[in-house]
From TrEMBL:
Span of domain Gamma-butyrobetaine hydroxylase-like N-terminal: 9-91
Organism: Corallincola platygyrae
Keyword Iron applies: yes
Gene3D superfamilies membership: 3.30.2020.30
Key words of the record: Iron, Metal-binding
Name recorded for this polypeptide: DUF971 domain-containing protein
Top-rank taxon: Bacteria
Cross-referenced InterPro entries: GBBH-like_N, GBBH-like_N_sf
PANTHER family attached to this UniProt entry: OS02G0197800 PROTEIN
Amino acid sequence: MPGPQLTGIKLQRSERLLTVRFDDGAAFDIPCELLRVSSPSAEVQGHGKPKLVTNKREVNISTIERVGNYAVKLVFDDGHDTGIYPWQLLYILGRDCDKLWQDYLDRLSAAKASREPLIAVNVKFSD
C-alpha cells in the first residue's frame, strides 16, 4: 500500500528549511541539517550502522531534482549529492522530526562532536 504522495515541495533557503506537503493534508518544515545528516545515501547509512555526520549546522540545499514519481534527489551546498529521498522518507522525517532531531543531538553529545561548521585556520609556524 503506497503512503501519502508528495503534492508540494519548497526550499526556504534563508531559514534552511524544506517545506513538504502531502495529499493527506500533512505539511512539514524539515531542517536542511536534519535532511543532510539523515541522508539515505550509502555514504551516511553505511553497512548496518549509520555514520554520525557532524559540523552541518549551516548546511543548505543547493538543488532539488525530481526522481520519477517517487522521490527527490537533494544536492547540498557541502557537495553531498548521493541521497535519493523517497516520499515516504520525507514524510517520516517530517512527522518524526522532533524525535529524530533529539536522537541526533544525543548521538553528537555521546561522541563529543559538534554541529558547528569547521573553520579553516591559517597557522604560521615560526622557525
